[in-house]
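Researcher: Here's my situation. A collaborator sent me these components and asked whether they could plausibly form a single complex. I don't have experimental data yet, so a predicted model of the whole assembly would be a useful starting point for our discussion.
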Amino acid sequence: MKDLRQVGRSVVKTDAQGLALGRAKFTDDLLEGDELYCRILESPHAHAEILSLDASEAEALPGVAAIFHGGNVPRIPYTSAGQGNPEPSPYDMVLFDTRVRFVGDRVAMVVAESEEIAREALSKIRVEYRQLPANFEAERARNPQTPKLHGPEAFMPIEELSYRPEENVASEVLLTIGNPDGAFEESDFVVEHTYSVHYASHAALEPHTAHARLDPQGRLVIHTSTQVPFHARRITAKLLEISPGKVRVIKPRIGGGFGGKQEVLLEPLVGLAAWKTRRPCRLTLSRKEVFTSARTRHPMRVRLKTGFLKDGTIKAMEMENLMTAGAYGPHAMTVLTVSAWKCLPLYNKVEHLRFTGHTVYTNTPVGGAYRGYGATQSHFATNQQLDIVARTCGMDVLELAKSLHIKEGETSPVFEALGEGKGGISQTITSCKLSECIDRGAKALGWYEKRDKKLRQGSWVRGVGMAICMQGTGLPQIDLGSATMKMNEGGSFNLLVGATDLGTGSDTILAQIAAEVLGISTEDIIVTSSDTDVTPFDVGAYASSTTYVSGGAVKRCAEAVREQICHAAGEILGVPREELIFGSGGEIRHPGRGETVTFAQVAQHTLYGGTLRQIGATGSFTGEVSPPPFTAQFADISVDCDTGRIKVHHLVTAIDCGQPINPALAEGQVEGAVLNALGYALYEEYRFDEKGRVTNASFWDYKVPGSEDTPKITTILVDSCEETGPYGAKSVSEVPMNGPAPAIANALYDAAGVRIYHLPLTPEKVLEALKKEKWGTP
Amino acid sequence: MRGSFVVNGSVREWEFPEDMRLLDLLRREGYGEVKCGCREGMCGSCCVLLEEKIVNSCQVLAASATNKQIRTVEALSEGEEPHPLVTAFAEAGAVQCGFCTPGMILAAYCLLRDNPDPSEEEIKRALDGNYCRCTGYVKIFDAVQRGARKMREKEVQE
Amino acid sequence: MEWFFPKTVDEVIELLGKEDAVLHGGGTMLLRGGLRPSGKMVDLSGVESLRQIVMEGGVTSLGGGVTYAEAARRLGESDPDHILVQSLGKAAATPLRNRITLGGSVMAQPLWSDLLGPLTALGAELRLEGKNSGFFEMAEFLRSPELRSGNLIHSLRFPSVSWRTWYHRETRTSFDYPAFTLSLLCRQEGGRVKELRVVLTGTSKKVERLLGVEERFQGRDAEERNFRNLEEFLPETFVDRPHGSASYLRSVAAVALERGLRKLMGGDAA
């Protein structure tokens, strides 16, 4: 798939300059002038019934326009998860409930003339709570005596999916292939460990924010920082009991998402406020509210049992995942499923497999979509276990990984067995350059010079570790993307896509795909995205679908437009279309006659001078398969044996993402994911007190990597081509999230002989492990 | 209270509450390039130049900035020509979501003003108060080097 | 709430006499916690005399209105290893260092300060103006809460001695407040330790001088220096922090102390 002119070029992002100048508009930058400001009253208790709520004193404050709460807003069960309809997530929430289930849960909303008045009004709302026993531990969630968070009112809209709120089970996923118990018996070695990963915040720099107003026709227009404008429209309309046609959702620039904005959180609130007050309403969460009351990564405990032979052949794998949903269950089933679906197929030669997964409710912050989406959690376990298998057998882990990973032409029964709401799909791997990733990554890191060497420098000892990862590329038969193009006079094109650019650069790469089809420069493609009135449907930015699914739609659309252009050129020259060749630079040639027609001429002909019609088309795409991208990720670290501090020298990612549409943007996705994963591995964590309150809901104490924390980061885009993807592309944004944490943990073992099974790898934890290793006791 | 400020070279007279933060006042008056990310002086999205020193505008009470020079990223570019750092950031792929970018560019500007040929360590230190969650900083460091080169070339030309 | 913009120290003192006068240096302490500022705000940024940095007569004097960034830069010009350059040059982050003032920081005395330890180690004196005009040693100021109201920190001063210095701040990431700090100042003469100062901050006592360590090394030659079992000299006053438990922090402080002392006294690298 070579000879590309636009695809494969590191074109500068279309919006880069506007953003760098500070001129591009984000939701909170929109100022109408007569907005009302919304603020949310949050629960101080982890679990309580609201016995009474008296807003009269607050309502009497001058400047308070409205107060909404469980007493005056209809109870319509829904899920906030930004997923297709019907969502594969439980309908376990209403806009304002009479029960609160975690500290930070929504109690009421004040709408007032200013932020100050709104805050003052919040303090005047009198709420009487009856506190209920709360449970913060996933391990105890299913015990009969543990308080249950949800009752019979909650249900799963897709009936076939398991849902047992009476056990605090938000989802159960079970899979058995072959006879694992028998296979364990036949193994030379059986190794079992329990790993765990923890709560994290996306910490996108722009807090969640939304703005709603009524247009002159009385329709609701919502500007919002969202990854899912179309789902936001549907769910908002449902909750306001109006038709989706009455709602328009527009995404302006957004300041990062990483999954945290694949959630319909604020749109129904500002929509409700604007609908009732008939005035523009805005709501921007404080950073603290983003930490406590938006969405998080789902904590997960992974018990992994591996049976293998002396030669490294893995005979059986048993994975038991216990995932914490928090107080509500958006993405409860899908993240759990992905922890199997986008991890286990890597090990397709393992004939005997058992997966037991449960997502449980606890009175803690709510998990949602977060880059990696379950795969990150299980990869932390599988990659450490792989390291253990290699060491037990005295094998080179790189050689072992190369021998056992899924290859081109192969399949895994896991693909067919599990699905995200619909059944799974059977698929064969059509592109996989993982072995090459392993080799090239190892070389870039200097693997063999450091592995098993325990090179010392004072109290610091050095080690290297590796992880192999996969993810998916869109949700086949579930994710729909579409694109509309029209031709303008002069030969430029409008490209309208529902796809959501979070800063990832999707506007740019979709323009590159269209430009490639039409043989022109991206400068002649004007992209409009994410406006439910103007752009055609797209599920939004998640499941690593944009390049493949939205890109696939753009390609189809542009190809249709190209045909129409050729046809019109034929009319101009008076020749059949078959005699024409589509050239580059906006020209169509008749080789026989040596004549060319320019796009500008075609436009003139079709809009004004000749056979009049608008050249344009709409293309749709959903995948038949979800071809996994693959990474081999490496960490080169040193650990200070006297303090437990880990210093990361170098993180290498070698990735097979098919043909990168824009290499610089693809690298940018890898680099961002890798540093985020570093923070997750070493110091990002939620801290709670005994009452379930988050005690570090601030950057002061929730530490994210800053400029001086960055190690050397190397990204290698290996040559690959996925035949089912537009110009050979697969996804790139999520998969690099999965490798760094296990690679660092493996490197720690390589350096100091200690293995830590629970993230984050704080210095204290590491030192305790080192002392235990050295002295037998901490 | 009333106060006078010099913002991006223009004298502005504004009426504002005594306890208003400079961040909120600037945004109210249309300087949307000054972003609000945390309100705690940690993320750096609200950075402005106050008397040519970079500060978190969310940690400055507007009243204490009266009669002082304030510059946002807008002030760096004169007329139609974007500042070399703006172009450098765009070209280097250092702009993903762009929320951190105005503050980040100001931090780079301050660095290069005092140190036209900085080392990687010096760049990291100068940007230590500006978080970015999208890029992993890799291309941001490239952009600062690129911008430094552009500015040195411009100096030579002028 | 009302704002005042004095130009001289005398004007500040007069304003301090009013009820609910609040001195405003950089304002970061006020705002970081989302506190509502109120009362009579006395903005000090226009008082030039509070921004002086003077090094003469064997004394370094830094105005109360000097920011961390200014102090680190100016002191760094003549002595890049000055302990205040190491501590203030790394505290918080660049934009905050342009705003946090020395006077404001000493007045607020946060548990996590990067300033109190070095100043104590330097033997700094504060010059107060107002209700209690005069010079006060750091330790005295820190234990006298009544000095914090009705007074302006005009400046602080310490002898311009050339010390060998070592500073440690225990953080999780680079942009982080310290769980504890260790300031070591050492002067040697003819291979013998003439003077050693060891100050630990971040414990429940806020600032502690580790006299036991100082005594062990004071007056010693190279051969006599004993770097073992320094943990004994660390107090039991460490507290649990997000960075780590009290016992972990104490053990890491012991490691940091040993490393610092070895580095300062030219001992073998640990």
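Model: Some features of this prediction you could bring to your collaborator: The mean pLDDT of chain B is 96. The helical segments of chain B are 22-28, 84-91, 101-114, 120-126, 138-157.
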